């Protein structure tokens, strides 16, 4: 039996109770606050990005210690996790701002959230289609390039011709 199967986790990894999650908010004492490094670690967002999100207004201004250091509650940590996951899904900052607003509005209609997600999925599909077209063009150009000692190159000729006009 390995250490992983005996303990249920890899050696050196924190126990699940040590990892805060949205399902285990009660693990931290009510009112506990964290410095920016602790909040960054708990949320999986770098301290630099925490400050950036705060500067963009995605995080409300947080409490400060007597020495002027930022103090984050679990509420801000959860918000940071929300932002991180939205970024992982490719949402832009304005979309995240809308999603945060909807998340915090318990009276929202889920159709609004669905519309944001559907618009984003459609935009992703458009970008995928554009990238696949670029890939096909580059593969065709590379196929026509001899790739030898000759100076002539259809890839450079195409680039020199300038942008193509779309219908």
Explain what this protein looks like in three dimensions.
With 167 residues, this protein is an all-alpha fold. Helix content is 56%, strand content 2%. It has seven helices and two strands; from the N terminus they run H-H-H-E-E-H-H-H-H. The protein has helices spanning 3-7, 36-43, 47-56, 74-88, 93-104, 110-144, 154-161; strands at 63-64, 70-71. Strand 1 and strand 2 form a beta hairpin. Helix 2 (36-43) crosses helix 4 (74-88). The chain is elongated and about 70 Å long. The chain starts with a helix and ends in a 6-residue tail after the last helix.
Question: Taking all residues together, what is the mean pLDDT?
Answer: 85
Which series of helices and strands comes N to C? HHHEEHHHH
Question: How many angstroms does the end-to-end distance come to?
Answer: 64 Å
- Overall structural class, as computed from helix and strand content, comes to mainly alpha
Give the overall form: elongated
Major sheet? 2 strands, antiparallel
- Rg, nearest Å: 24 Å
Strand order of the largest sheet: 1-2
- Beta fraction: under 5%
State the share of residues found in helices, binned by percent.
55-70%
Number of helices: 7
Number of strands: 2
Instruction: List low-confidence stretches.
Output: 1-27
């Amino acid at each position: 039996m390995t250490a992983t199967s005996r303990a249920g986790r890899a050696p050196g990894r924190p126990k699940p109770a040590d990892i805060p999650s949205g399902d285990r908010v009660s693990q931290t004492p009510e009112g506990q606050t964290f410095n920016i490094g602790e909040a960054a670690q708990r949320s999986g967002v770098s301290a630099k990005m925490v400050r950036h999100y705060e500067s963009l207004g995605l995080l409300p201004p947080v409490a400060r210690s007597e020495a002027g250091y930022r103090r984050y509650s679990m509420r801000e940590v959860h918000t940071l996790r929300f932002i991180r996951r939205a970024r992982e899904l490719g949402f832009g900052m304005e979309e995240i701002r809308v999603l945060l607003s909807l998340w915090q509005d318990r009276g929202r209609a889920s159709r609004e959230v669905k519309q944001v997600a559907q618009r984003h999925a459609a935009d992703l599909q458009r970008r995928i289609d554009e990238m696949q077209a670029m890939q096909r063009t580059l593969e065709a150009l590379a196929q026509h390039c001899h790739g030898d000692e000759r100076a002539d190159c259809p890839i450079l000729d195409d680039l020199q011709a300038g942008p193509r006009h779309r219908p």
